[in-house]
Amino acid sequence: xxxFFKRKPASSGPALEGLRCDMHxxxxxxxxxxxxxxxxxxxLIRGLVALGYKKIITTPHINADGFPNTPAxxxxxxxxxxxxxxxxxxxxxFHAAAEYLLDDGFSRALSNGESxxxxxxxxxLVEFSFVVPAMNIKDILFQLQLKGYQPVLxxxxxxxxxxxxxxxxxxxxxxxxxxxxxxLSFRGHYGKEAxxxxxxxxxxxxxxxxxxxxxxxxxxxxxxxxxxxxxxxALLDTGKILNPGL
Length: 246
Prior knowledge:
Elements: E1 21-22, H1 38-51, E2 55-58, E3 61-62, H2 71-88, E4 93-96, E5 99-101, H3 104-111, E6 123-127, H4 137-146, E7 150-154, H5 167-174, E8 178-182, H6 192-204, E9 209-211, H7 217-222, H8 226-237
Parallel strand pairs: 1-2, 2-4, 3-5, 5-6, 6-7, 7-8, 8-9
């Protein structure tokens, strides 16, 4: 299925092994817009292992309108994938958290004191609307932190409305947000503007985590990129990237 894998010289090692952990993907079959069946899920996971990942924290969408998943649904799906990985002899740690859209449903859950799935300890992956940010973003982030969570903003380079006012990034950092960039942004997968914003955030020193945001085979193929390898190596050299410690 994944015929695009190319053998590297024995001395170089897998392309992304320095990251060790991928912390943003959609690999539980049939519950969001990622892998749609178990065969797809296992195939994508095998592809990440071939790239050098030792641990995967998959993050299904949770949002009120499109994918109203629950922690119970996600844990059940994770357990099924883990069982299949063991059956097929795929050596990788497979954990699950979630990617939470900061919508009205999330605000209600936060107000009701519901528990959220985290990447590790108190790290919670959140995303904004791609159309326009919610008016109460800063309040939601503040309330999250009051409840002991550390928000991690998924793919800030993909919110193109920030391009016209990059001061938003400074405000979000000041509000306590960590930033997670998508590796595919470095090769222009989401367009020129997202690439430019990704490079801007790197120059600002605003990158804390790197994720594949893997949904399908096309994404996996795109990760085989010299530019991505170079960017990852340079960012790891800063000592600021948190993936290896997850």
